[in-house]
Design goal:
Elements: E1 3-7, H1 12-23, E2 27-32, E3 42-46, H2 52-64, E4 69-72, H3 87-111, E5 116-120, H4 134-153, E6 159-163, H5 186-198, E7 205-207
Parallel strand pairs: 1-2, 1-4, 2-3, 4-5, 5-6, 6-7
Helix pairs in contact: 1-5, 2-3, 3-4
Length: 213
Amino acid sequence: MQKVAILGASRGLGSCLAKVAAMAGSDVRGFARKAGPAYDRVTYHLADFSNEEGQCAVLENLLSHPVERVFITVGGGPFGPYGQREFKDHLWAWQVTFLFPARVVHALMATGRSCQIILTGSSVAESHGDPGAASYASAKHALHGLHSSLRLENPEWDLRLFSPGYMDTTLLPRNAAVRSVGVWAPEQVAEDLWEWALGPDKGGHRVYQRHPA
């Protein structure tokens, strides 16, 4: 039974992925601020990724109990004019969306043990400006840059970047205008992500359209 870790497993894509991985027979360790839905073979570990204590707890768990695959689906940030939001809100976005994933990758690479690491980007925000979401978009830009740089620096590592489009989750407001254009079902995206993770490493980056065709 392969061992899988999902960082950000309580809701959205991470929660759906936990279900898919468990149904495939994996032993899943989910990390989040709160427990997600109860699935067989999924164990939740509570941790706040925005602070030192929570980050250290996750790293200690991953280093003490190695896994074959690590999915980092966590991310988020404030919405609204950049200068009208408190700076601590932007710091939270950068910490959770970029700095913590970067720290996890660093810690795992430093062990020298081989494991697959999949970061979650965004076809909406990682290569384009996103008005009203500057801190989130800048964090996704940074994640994209980290991935492409480390792929060149460490070609032997199976480090991948999965970049979905708009998804129908609680993270996207019900009145969001983009819903009228179409949004992806997170259950289907999670299945795609799992199948892609099991397949050969061909370029290490999968990018979705922003909206379903």
